[in-house]
Amino acid sequence: MSHLSMRFTGRTLWLGLAAWLLSACGTVPRELAYEPESALVPFAPGLSQPGAMARWSGVIAMVHNEPARSVIEVVVLPLKSNGVPLQTEQSPGRFLAIMPGFVDPALYAKGRSLSVLGQVAAPVDGKIGEHPYRFAVLDSAKSKLWPPVKEVEVRYVDPFFHDPFYDPYWPRRPLRPLPR
Known about the structure:
Layout: H1 3-25, H2 43-46, E1 53-65, E2 69-77, E3 94-100, E4 113-128, E5 131-145
Parallel strand pairs: 3-5
Antiparallel strand pairs: 1-2, 1-4, 2-3, 4-5
């Protein structure tokens, strides 16, 4: 093998590896995969398209277990490219994810993120508290319960910043008499 072809093969290998790693960042998990992706309907237009396939996600608000199925009330959040719900302060609404069998409310707890792939069913009238509400319904074919979000507070202190009036030890500094 010549030096040129060896260098070309090494470069190709590195480019291929980089492309593979970058493509893994935006892929949807197996549980939520659907082909063709363009056939999936978003939340708002999906309300008027019973029978269409959809992938919706959000935060669990409530779980109702019935004898043969579980109904999970989900506050809709937009999806990231990898299928994870994007944590935002705004929501276009709520939907009911219908899952066959029993769903443990301890695992599917209020506040956990959930993504559901399934078929849009006819909307159902219900209530949120005492407020009447029309819920979109998604008959779940597959779902993904995401790990709990752990928030971490990060504080950055600039080591080169100096303010003569700032004392980082102010609340804990012992009082001492002023020199005379």
